[in-house]
Amino acid sequence: MDRAYTADYQLITALQAIKGRLYFCPRCNGALHFYPGTKNTPHFRHGKGVPEEVKAACELYSQSLGEYTMYDQELVARQRVRLVLKKQDEEYIFQLKFPLINQLNVKMQRHNMYYTYHCEQISEFQLNTVRLLPARPACEQDVPLLARYTFKCTNERYEKMLGLHISGMFEPFSDGPLIFKDIQGQFNSIPYRKITLSGRFFVVSANPLIYIHSELEVVSRIRYEQFYIYEMIMPIEFSDDLQTWFTRILNYTLLAATCHLDILPPVSFKKIGTIVEINSHKSFWLLTNIGMRHMEQRVILVHPNNRRQVLKVPKNQIVELNISDSGDYLLYVEQEVIEILTLRYTPILEHTRNFKGHAIIDNKDALFTIRELHEEKIEFETDLSVLVHTETDINYEIKHGGKNTFKAPIRIDFPTLWSVNVQQPVSLSNRIAFDNILSLYEKHYLYPKVICLVEEIRLLESIVMNSGFVYKDRILYYIRRFSIRAPKPIVEIIKEMKHIQ
After folding, report:
1. Which of 3-7's residues contact partners 24+ apart within 8 Å by CB, and which partners?
2. Residue 179 buriedness (CB in 10 A; 0-12 / 13-18 / 19+)
3. Helix (H) or strand (E) holding 95
4. What is the mean pLDDT of residues 135-164?
5. Bridge partners of 66?
């Protein structure tokens, strides 16, 4: 790895390190050895004899040399000052977002280490460090949009002890126009120059853009004092030409995702930007790779208390998540180019409309208003992309909306927004004795094991997952445990399922 913390909690690169000093891992806080690089590039490495649980929990343990992942870049950005853009009633508001004090360094209440920041360009600006404590919900402050902010603190010694990096000049536009991307419900400025984008984003520039690429949908463009603000929407797929436009005009490298995560039924969801609200503590996610797949992929779930959970991706590419505590969880795939999602448990999904788009089901406005329907046949009209799951296990993807009629739909997903449960697949489920399946798996040692087709196991898993059987979690556990090697009577049940379908 090429970054580490010093003993006084300063994040440095391997080029700044000095041999013989103490360094610590930014993830697991374990001791690191510095290798100045007589043959290889200078780098840090964990010591020998690291416990297996540390290897599993520390993403950087096995990371190859080179640049940090996108999550690491975002983590570093959160330790610096950045801008936040808010749009309210067609008015734009800018805020400065400050890094919070690391939980390990919270000694302020014991030692009275509070102090204040001032800004040379804004005479009325004052920020007391009490607002940077981890328990405080807001670390933003409204400010005018400027090309430069110069911060001074009343106690530089305390600032260093608390591991903050605020004092000095902050020049957000020094590398060119700024992109503001939706991260955890806020449009934050992105200081790193390699980026993935989906949906809505903003570009703020000190100079008007020469031209805007035709693949981008421009929602609005205005002059804001001496700056220019552009609100745009990314296409679902982008060309090499658009990639070149981002590089030449905005000085950003636009990266194509190497994989993406999709939530599976029957959990209902709402997705705005990168925030996914779900109505269940437990959810299943399908990992889809775009191009080559790594030999061993791992999904990372960062809990609200910053505990990092590592989940290996099984062969069926379906990962089970449990979010038991309140608060925001971060979800991403290790060492991949992917959007960092924010998961939030919401028992009742509600939302007010704040975007352009509609979905009419049976002459009723369905988007953000209808969560469940009980119809054998539906008619809907939308200008959004749609994924329809049906009882016949045939899924329909409609990328450009339109008017459609479907028989026996189970669920409708508007992939970036909302899901509607239409009906449960009861016709097939009612004819299956799930308690018999559970009993066969629990007494598996009484039966010979037979190799099944992957498609057959996925069919069984899908039907069990969508059923209302009270102990279906136990059946799903056995399905994942035995995979394609199932007790022989289970094979007969699967054949019966296929025949019924």
Report:
1. 3/44, 3/68, 3/72, 3/76, 4/32, 4/34, 4/44, 5/29
2. buried
3. strand 91-97
4. 87
5. none
